[in-house]
Amino acid sequence: MNPNALHPAGLIVLPILMEIIAGCAPNKPERIGLTGPDVSKVSRIDPDHEPQAVAAAGVPSIDRKSAANRPAPIVQTGRYSVLAATPSHAQWHPLDVIIDVTVPEECISIEHAIHFLLRRSGYDLETSLQADVTELLAKPLPAVHRKLGPMPLKDALTLLVTPGFVLQDEPIKRSIRFFPVDENRGGP
Asked: What is the pTM of this model?
């Protein structure tokens, strides 16, 4: 039996199959631009009088160094879905990442547990600690603190040293330290 391409059923089925196959082809993700100022107006700006020329061209003045002032680029991730390409809150603030961990049995002290929790955060425990903080960190880790989460990393670290101490982070050095509660009331 020889299939005939000009058969009436073939004329109906073949275009339908072609549409189905074309619809299943993977789409290349595209970057969708936001509507912005007219580029032709921006290209005619005089470099000696940029602020005045920018205002005259109707282009908003934007601080180029500030990420907060730039519109978030929109990226198409699928056929019908788009996402704003912006960092998450946890990426801006690593101590706010939500964790759900079980501290291993090898971590026998509170200090070991703190180092375990900080190992992927980019933060370190400050080495010059007060005597009472050092004394607390040397104590055995309570069994109830072996399973932590889901909660922010900052809350888990605070939980390990409460109620007598509070956490203070130093984002520039990416380090944390603990202060006694009564000492913190007057400021760190």
From this structure: 0.59
